[in-house]
Amino acid sequence: MSELNLVLLGPPGSGKGTQGETLQEDLHLPYYATGDILRAAVREGTAIGLEAKQYMERGDLVPDDVIVGVIAERIDGAEAEDGFILDGFPRTLPQADALDGMLGEIGREISLVLHFMLPEEMAEQRLLRRAAEQSRSDDTPDVIRRRMELQRAPDELVAYYRAKGILVGIHADRTIDEVFAEVQAVLETAAAR
Ligand code: AMP
């Protein structure tokens, strides 16, 4: 496989961020976590940051056109020539459609979607623990519940990518090392295809 365009799918707290960062080093590919990108934009007070802030504080999704613009300029950049790792995007079907559209325009497509599967109670517990450790302003119990609600149904995204035959489930209810071993095995199998 000459190019590896990866999407990490899964609820907040499923560990996909941790795995994404390790993968970034392992695969030497840029890692685009939309939550991190938006939080940086808010800190820097950019136009996108100002717009996103109000939604993020409530735990709502920022509008599709805002986030699609953020991603478009990155995946079309020189840095992402050999591929990329997307985390937190797409979150909705219109975003998935937009992603396919912009990749199609440059003759590319998503190679693989890793779906991090985790029981909901476990994801909530992990988020509350992270809130205590990092004091993220959107990790309060109320906002966490709202984010869980919103992201409980990536079912349509899962179905979308399953139908394309590029979805692989990852058992995310294990240790970081065990999950990473599973991810690596999946990538090796895909590379051998
Ligand atoms: P995360 O760090 O992925 O949990 O994202 C934090 C917040 O950023 C979310 O609660 C949303 O408000 C916003 N966000 C991140 N990614 C997206 C996206 N793909 N679409 C809409 N909003 C997003």
Top keywords for this entry?
5-stranded parallel sheet; binds adenosine monophosphate; globular; 9 helices; alpha/beta; 59% helix
Structural summary, described in words:
The chain is an alpha/beta fold and 193 residues long. The protein contains 9 helices and 5 strands; from the N terminus they run βαβαααβαβαααβα. It has a 5-stranded parallel sheet with strand order 2-3-1-4-5, sandwiched between helices. Helix 1 packs across helix 9 and helix 4 packs parallel to helix 5. The termini are close together. The structure holds adenosine monophosphate (AMP).
Please tally the helical runs, counting DSSP H or I stretches of 4 or more residues: 9
Radius of gyration: 16 Å
N-to-C span: 8 Å
Catalogue the unreliable spans: none
- Spatial sequence of strands, sheet with the most strands: 2-3-1-4-5
Structural class by SSE content: alpha/beta
The percent range for helix content is 55-70%
* DSSP summary, beta strand count: 5
The average pLDDT score comes to 89
Instruction: List bound small molecules.
Output: adenosine monophosphate
- Sheet having the most strands: 5 strands, parallel
**Strand percent estimate:** 5-15%
Spell out the helices and strands N to C: EHEHHHEHEHHHEH
Shape, principal axes of CA atoms: globular
